[in-house]
């Protein structure tokens, strides 16, 4: 992921901001007695240096319990593709697919997106119980002037499909009135507010949860600071779980994606004792750290 990339990451203050004041009350209200669901994954199951002879998705899903499925941003696949993905992955695995860019970037939530949404959901639903939260990432220049489009989209969205939304224009968060209206809309409709932790856009660390899901997209800087940054996330997620958080969906990116599996394995190793989870530690920490797909 190149979004938010900087040339001198050592100059960035990566300290996690304090929680938004409305996050704790939200977690108390949203808490329930369901078991904590913790998932850590990558944005794709192949890497540029992949040399596997075995099925890549099948192998990936033996190492991780989920995937942030970025491929669906670029096209809506045929129905048999989703059926194959379902069949190749084990019980309990989850896909978190990205909404097609025809909705978010090309048509920008205008009135023409709804047939596209219907078509997308028709085939995506073939993932059945392996379908996690779908996430919609808006273009950087999609600003609050488009508020009415956001409201109409949220009202149209079928509530049986969990949804997370990622807004990138600074005015969604720097204008307090706009931010509060957005948070309220998401909270009222049980939509997750995506948190993006990347070097060059610290303003996206709004730390405002809007439902019982922490949907985090973490972007490493290929720098030694990546590891203490992850420890800070372990501490924050641990705090949120004590406050009532029930779902952690954490996806690790890197500017050079080859290192993403290493960071993910490190994160899982820290999360397990902190949260009492028992996530499988990918092969990178069980042997020489050459990369998960070597």
TrEMBL record:
One Pfam family cited in the UniProt record for this chain: DUF72
InterPro entries: DUF72 (IPR002763), UPF0759_sf (IPR036520)
Gene3D superfamilies the UniProt entry points to: Protein of unknown function UPF0759 (3.20.20.410)
Domain of life per record: Bacteria
Name the UniProt record assigns to this protein: DUF72 domain-containing protein
């Amino acid at each position: 992921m190149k979004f938010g990339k900087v040339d001198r990451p050592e100059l960035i203050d990566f300290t996690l901001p304090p929680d938004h004041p409305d996050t704790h009350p939200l977690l108390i209200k949203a808490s329930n007695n369901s078991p904590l669901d913790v998932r850590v994954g990558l944005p794709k199951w192949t890497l540029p240096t992949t040399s596997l002879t075995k099925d890549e998705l099948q192998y990936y899903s033996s190492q991780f319990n989920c995937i942030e499925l970025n491929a669906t941003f670029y096209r809506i696949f045929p129905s048999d593709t989703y059926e194959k993905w379902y069949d190749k992955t084990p019980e309990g695995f989850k896909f978190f697919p990205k909404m097609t860019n025809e909705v978010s970037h090309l048509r920008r939530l205008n009135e023409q997106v709804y047939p596209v949404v219907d078509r997308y959901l028709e085939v995506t639903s073939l993932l059945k119980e392996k379908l996690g939260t779908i996430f919609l990432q808006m273009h950087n220049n999609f600003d609050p002037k488009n508020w009415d489009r956001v409201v109409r989209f949220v009202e149209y969205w079928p509530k049986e499909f969990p949804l997370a939304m990622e807004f990138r224009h600074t005015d969604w968060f720097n204008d307090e009135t706009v931010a509060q209206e957005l948070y309220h809309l998401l909270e009222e409709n049980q939509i997750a507010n995506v948190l993006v932790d990347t070097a060059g856009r610290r303003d996206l660390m709004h730390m405002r949860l809007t439902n019982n899901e922490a949907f985090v997209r973490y972007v490493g800087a290929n720098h030694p600071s990546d590891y203490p940054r992850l420890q800070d996330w372990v501490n924050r997620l641990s705090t949120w779980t004590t406050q009532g958080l029930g779902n952690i969906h954490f996806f690790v990116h890197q500017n050079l994606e080859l290192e993403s599996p290493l960071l993910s394995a490190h994160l899982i190793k820290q999360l397990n004792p902190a949260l009492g989870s028992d996530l499988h530690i990918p092969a990178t920490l069980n042997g020489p750290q050459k990369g998960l797909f070597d």
